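Our collaborator T.R. sent over the components below with a one-line note: 'Predict the complex.' Nothing else. No constraints on interfaces, no templates requested, no preferences about which chain binds where. So this is a plain run: every listed entity goes in together, and whatever single assembly comes back becomes the starting point for the next discussion.
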Amino acid sequence: MPSVAAVARTSSVVVEIGGLPIRLHCDNAAFVRQIHERYIGYVRDSVDASFDFDIELAPPGTESGDEDLHVTWDAGRWLMDRGDFRAEWNPSTARGRIQQTINPYSLDSVLRIVHTLLLARKGGFLVHASSAIRNGRAFLFSGVSGAGKTTMARLAPPDASLLTDEISYVTRQEGRYMAVGTPFFGELARVGENLQAPIEALYLLAKGPENKIEPIEGAAAVRGLLENVLFFARDPEFVKLVFDSAFEFVAQVPVRRLTFVPDSSVWELIV
Amino acid sequence: MTTVQYVSRSKAIAARALGDETMVMSATNSTLFTLDEVASAIWKAADGMTPLNEIVANKVCTQYEISPEAALKDAEALVKRLAEHGILLLSDQPFAGMSDARKESA
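Returned assembly:
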């Protein structure tokens, strides 16, 4: 891994998440350094990358107040637009462009979108869930904001490797679903470990007076998953791919309701 | 309602049957619907060429103990609701280019 000083002298950095290296070019050395620090553990010194993005920094204060995200497919390119960034990406040429101010959140959003689009074609998806590996198996804890994703991550025992407290990265590899570490974090503000493991179970979180696990099957399981999957693109083909992936996932991976008291005793059930 | 209605499944959706239910997701806003057994029967028969009253008569009234009038009223409310979310299309005319679809679902 290159040193921060070395990175600062170059104009690009390769960020590899889920085995997919993306090179980010920017003329602003301070921002390249910021990327290096933000994605620590996911930065590669390899010159090879699957995709290249040029980042153009706009002066601070030029953001619009529009917080709605728009992701559309137009003339062979994905267009991504929100108040704080504008990006386009051509999968055929493997090149893209991002216009944003100097903050790490805009780039984080673009990377999440790009990964959801790439994962969709491979049977994977991003889901609002914390995840951790224990005893060689990955566990996902999913729910809306306030359901307990970060709480579960914070309560994880020392023998658990935290993959993320916010956005879990699910891939399908050789017919098996794997959870992969990501730098996408939530309240915990901690980059996940760059590890992967087969998914043992998906838990839909609910806080309650006691710890208990109940199976969820059929439509309720699919619904529980789809309600938490990240859908950025309003594109019929993309939505169908992710929709089908959710069914395949539920057919293979047990989905359970985890009602829990927010203390470390809940992890006694996660083995 | 006395007007004959035709119903057609939107192409901007993703759908899958799961047991007796059907899950439908709008591709335009990711809204998810779970259709029960009766709604699934209507959904499956919504080929754009078969009038709704015929669908209700053949797919609902033959399977469930319900009067044709009550079944049609329920079905009209259902298709209206689904149409409001863009996952079903309504017309007082058969949908053009749907004759093959009817053949397939017959």
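Summary for T.R.: Chain B touches chain A at residues 11-14, 16, 18-19, 21, 23, 25-30, 32, 34 (CB under 8 Å).
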